[in-house]
Amino acid sequence: MSTQPLPLDGITVVAVEQAVSAPFATRQLADLGARVIKVERPDGGDFARGYDTAAAGLASHFVWCNRGKESLAVDLKDPRGIGIVRRLVADADVFVQNLAQGAAARLGLDAAALCAAHPRLIAVDISGYGAGGPYAHKRAYDMLVQCESGLVSVTGTPEQPVKAGVPAADIAAAMYAYAGVLAALVRRGTTGRGGPVEISMLESLAEWMGHPLHHAMHGGESPARTGVAHAVIAPYDAYATADGGQVLLSVQNDREWRRLAQQVLGRPELADDPSFATNTARVEHREKTDAVVGEALAVLTAAEAVARLEEAGIACARLNTLTDLAAHPQLAARERWREVASPVGPLRAMLPPVTFPDAAESAVMGAVPALGAHTDAILREAGLGAAEVAALRDAGVVV
After folding, report:
1. Which pLDDT score is estimated for 293?
2. Confidence class of residue 3 from pLDDT cuts 50, 70 and 90?
3. Less packed terminus of the chain by CB within 10 Å, N or C?
4. Has 214 been annotated as catalytic?
């Protein structure tokens, strides 16, 4: 089979980015072959570099979101720094920024201004709440947007609402930014013109709230918080096993309940018991339903419970820890792990979910850059001579 280049081979992205939403979007572009020039502050760079030191001394957020990029450390408060970025943008295909609302416009780096100057450029503005409206200038950290979007109201237990354990608002915005860039590139291929792309964290996560939102808007009430249980299906929950594990199972219809009762619970009489025979009855008697399922699984190990449930054709899963995920046999069997270079040595990373079997390589998965690691090379490529670069460095405009 002949091999093809990765889809974004030859595309150049310039990103003035920080935290998660923009960096996660541009990392996915880098994985698909794009060249991504990450513009960072000279005094510490992307502040996500300082979130923690869990990844062998590097910040776990930064390692996750920034592999495969070139780091240009330049002071955007200095007109010479802005000049460098504008020079790079003039030759780029895509520009992405997620600065505080209004900051990019003050620098002349907002999508409208850049696209007016460069008609083929695709320029992405990522914000918390959008360019207009009463929340436009409100701070928009992930947890805050999770709360504003209603996600926290439907996540957790009846007693306690909780935020998602991953930065869901950032990820949602990143995914729509990523998709928006790809769509804009397709349109440019047809029309020859780029254009602005706007992404709001609130609007992105509000879209993800589709099911509970429509349930509340059209049904008159919000779905109840049920932990890992399901509000309208039973049994559908995690149950403790004899070895300290937990196994989640889901019975989708009454035929499956009959199989569960006969082949897993060892209680065939429950198949026709009026308290359990229908899903409506099982939900009404949820405590009794959970009790009989819990008793049956409590004497089995997690492996035994999963084996018995699968043999009966009941959907199930282990409630894995992150350590379990890192050692997941399915990911290992599908060879999803790679090593990426970093300033502290090789780090384990997962192949991106979008892969192209006919490409020469599955994904680029380049190194995690040190701050300013590519500054000199990028400046030379932009046409600056050695003396100019040295002068900029001496002035603290670049590092």
Report:
1. 98
2. confident
3. N
4. no
The single residue of 215, 230, 285, 328 carrying the catalytic annotation is 230
Nearest-angstrom CA–CA distance, 116 and 121: 9
φ, ψ for residue 70 (rounded to 5)?
Answer: -105, 130
* pLDDT tens per residue across span 147-166: 999 999 999 999 999 999 99
